[in-house]
Design brief:
11% strand; Mannitol_DH_N; NAD; alpha/beta; four-stranded mixed beta sheet; Mannitol dehydrogenase family protein
């Protein structure tokens, strides 16, 4: 397995840390030590640690669960002294492999809560970061406020000095910091969530307000929550995948990691207690993060959803396989070129046509084995987030709408729950009611247009547009996806 001693004799094709891992100390505490974190924040920190006077920015990882896979992960990280390998593979198959030494320790919060709290309160900790998934912030979609009604949150509120949730741990850690006179720090979301800093502030200050209004005010004044846009495809790695990665690298790594060669991080420069020299390792600092978020959502996420819907109907498992169909490739390219880019304001210094070409290259990377089913899950909610601005811009602007209408038909065929051969597909729509699912599965094309997927632009659906959606669904049924695509 990987250890500090094994760094002395790495295979020739594997790069080791460009710094003395024994001299690295922890300045960042990260909740949610998953693959994306290790390939994204971990990647940038690994490069920062190689710069002069940056060795105090190592990371201590924290897991919020124990037992089963969580225990195994903890044991393996500790056995390897926090080391892990990252294999980056480009679309042309070229690979780079390196061993990362940024992870200094790994704690399991349920088993060692006081150690975690002491670390959060330690003056040396300057940043608390997290990857807890887009839905992990516990915000009520109706009110926009933090939900205190969740049972785990209620338990923390009843005994705030012995927390179990990330909100409880961070707020109790901040309370101890204030008590010790150590000042605030930065709470930094690394989740793929629009306005993730604003959402984080609402969540943590909302929890703190339920504990102590004065503490909430102190956090609001002394803790920063920068907004950020993160991007990198980092697939899950099976046991078989781990074996293949180790065979490729020549390492015996218990936690090998795979990612594409593309990476991006755009963030506001709002750090309460200092930050690593991220600007020297490729991180983009801007006060216009929302412009980058818009571009990503309207181009990357929207086209991803089109590919996933088409892939599910075509019974293809991987994104690169779907994009490998020439007619699908041409259709997605046309949607981006003719419907999205003309109605999207580019972020500063970004060429949207080059960005489009980069996206299509990334999606074609077979080494990522990106699962269509993963992307197609909760398509109803994703369509409202990813498609709304483009759909409204096209329909309100009186632009040519053939492709956009077809996308709506394609989505409804996905929600039907059967591929183009009539075979059942694994549909994951957690927010549709049983009645709505029955409508989606039926052949009542008119009724299905009333499903929530179109709620964000329903006011623009004229009788004529509805007839066009029905017509395109009939074409998909008659000819199949490839023959019916308007290319």
């Amino acid at each position: 397995m990987l250890t500090y001693d094994s760094l002395k004799s790495l295979p020739q094709k594997v790069a080791g840390p460009a710094y003395d891992v024994r001299k690295v100390t922890s300045g960042i505490v990260h909740f949610g030590v998953g693959n994306f974190f290790r390939a994204h924040l971990g990647y940038y920190v690994d490069r920062v640690l190689a710069l002069p006077d940056q060795q105090h920015w190592g990371i201590t990882g924290v897991g919020l669960r124990s037992g089963g896979n969580s225990d195994r992960k903890a044991e393996e990280f500790r056995a390897q002294e926090g080391l892990y390998s990252l294999t980056e593979i480009a679309a042309d198959g070229k690979a780079e492999i390196r061993v990362m030494g940024c992870l200094r320790d790994y704690l399991q919060a349920p088993d060692e809560p006081e150690t975690v709290l002491a670390l959060l309160a330690d003056k040396a900790t300057k940043i608390v970061s997290m990857t807890i998934t887009e839905g992990g912030y516990n915000i009520d979609e109706t009110t926009g406020e933090f939900r205190t009604s969740l049972p785990a949150v209620q338990e923390d509120l009843a005994n705030p000095k012995k927390p179990s949730t990330i909100f409880g741990f961070v707020v109790e850690g901040l309370r101890r910091r204030r008590e010790a006179g150590h000042g605030g720090l930065t709470v930094m979301s690394c989740d793929n969530l629009r306005h993730n800093g604003d959402v984080s502030r609402k969540a943590f200050v909302g929890y703190a307000r339920a504990v102590d209004a004065d503490l909430a005010e102190w956090i609001d004044q002394n803790v920063t929550f920068p907004n950020a846009m993160v991007d990198r495809i980092t697939p899950s790695v099976s046991d078989e995948g781990k074996a293949k990665l180790n065979e490729r690298s020549g390492l015996d790594d218990l936690q090998p990691l795979l990612s594409e060669d593309f990476i991006q991080w755009v963030i506001e420069d709002k750090f309460a207690a200092g930050r690593p020299a991220f600007d020297k390792v490729g991180v983009e600092f801007t006060d216009q993060v929302s412009a980058y978020e818009h571009a990503k959502i309207r181009m990357l996420n929207s086209s991803h959803l089109i590919l996933s819907a088409a892939g599910m109907l075509l019974n293809l498992e991987l994104v690169d396989q779907v994009l490998g169909e020439p007619r699908v490739h041409k259709f997605v390219d046309s949607v981006l070129e003719k419907d999205v880019i003309p109605t999207l304001k580019a972020p500063p210094g970004v060429d949207l046509h080059k960005y489009k070409a980069t996206l299509l290259t990334r999606f074609s990377n077979a080494a990522m084995a990106d699962q269509v089913a993963r992307i197609a899950s909760d398509a109803t909610s994703k369509a409202q987030v990813f498609w709304t601005e483009t759909v409204r811009a096209v329909l309100e602007g009186g632009r040519e709408r053939t492709r956009i209408v077809y996308c709506m038909a394609l989505l409804l065929e996905l929600l039907r729950g059967r591929n183009e051969k009539g075979e059942k597909i694994a549909l994951q729509e957690p927010f549709l009611t049983a009645e709505q699912l029955n409508i989606a599965a039926s052949d009542d094309f008119e009724a299905s247009i009333g499903l929530p997927a179109f709620d964000s632009w329903r006011d623009l659906l004229t009788p004529e547009i509805k007839q066009e959606i029905v017509r395109d669904r009939e074409l998909i049924r008659q000819k199949g996806v490839l023959a019916s695509l308007p290319v």
